[in-house]
Amino acid sequence: MKRGQLQIQESIFVLFVFFIILVIGMVVFYQMEFRSIERMRKENEDVTFYYLISYVPAMPEVVCSEKGIVEECIDLVKARAFASYDNDYYRKIFGNRKIILNADGEKIELYDFEPSKYSAERIISTPVSVYNPRDKSYTIGKLEVHDYEN
Amino acid sequence: MKTKGQIDMFGLVIIVILIVMIGLFSLFFISRGQIDEREEYYSYKANNFANALSKYSRGNLNFKEMVLECCTGSRCEDLLDFVEDNFAYVDEPVSFEIECANSDYSGSRGSCSSGIASESIILQSGDLIRVNLCRK
Q1: Which among B11, B34, B48 has the least Cβ separation from residue A18?
Q2: What are the tens digits of pLDDT across the range A132-149?
Q3: Where in chain B are the domains?
Q4: Chain A partners of B34 at a C-beta cutoff of 8 Å?
Q5: What are the contacts of A114-118 at 24+ separation with CB within 8 A?
Q6: What pLDDT is attached to residue B35?
Q7: A137 and B91 in contact by Cβ < 8 A?
């Protein structure tokens, strides 16, 4: 009887250790999975952020076009008009960011959704060709995208 | 005894399988490479700058005419000075290169000798311009 009890206790102990190891394994796996998802989310946000610098100058709302032919530049008059639009519609595209076009000494805020509180700010910029249809001139401007992290 | 030994063996096998699984998962997640979207960003920036320069035309200043004057005459310093004045639109170290089609002249200005190059823009005159952008 005593021997039988010992064997049962041994089996229970083995099973107990097995489940402890299984639980530890699952916890470790979950932690790694969570960190991986978090890293993917951050990478995706970074890609979206850097992608904006090529997306904005090509937007139909600001790109140079004449009789349907698109040119690689930003139309200054269109940009000024776009800056006066309501931000809410573009919030789903741009998120918590600010997009500024500096051209000819003029600072045009194309989009502004700067949060009241943020932990960090990143800025990327690119030179762009800016066309003024009034005097048909092409100058160089600077497009800035500000990203705010919570 | 035989039964006990089998149970012990079974337990050991389970432990080894678990450790191997945990090890494989860690290896999988650790060895994942990181995509550097900044490479594309710098390339796009260099192309943009070269494009913006080539299109510049305001009042008496026309970039294409300046390139033509440089390659057919000798006013290359004016061209290079003009380009250098516009380096302020780029935050990173940048350099500009020009290669004339019909003469042996090739000039450059800037502090980035090797970096991410823009596409070479060949103007109507056949002359070539290019921009190099160095990472910050």
Answers
A1: B11
A2: 999 999 999 999 999 998
A3: 1-33, 37-133
A4: 43
A5: A114/A146, A114/A148, A115/A148, A115/A150, A117/A150, A118/A148, A118/A149, A118/A150
A6: 54
A7: no
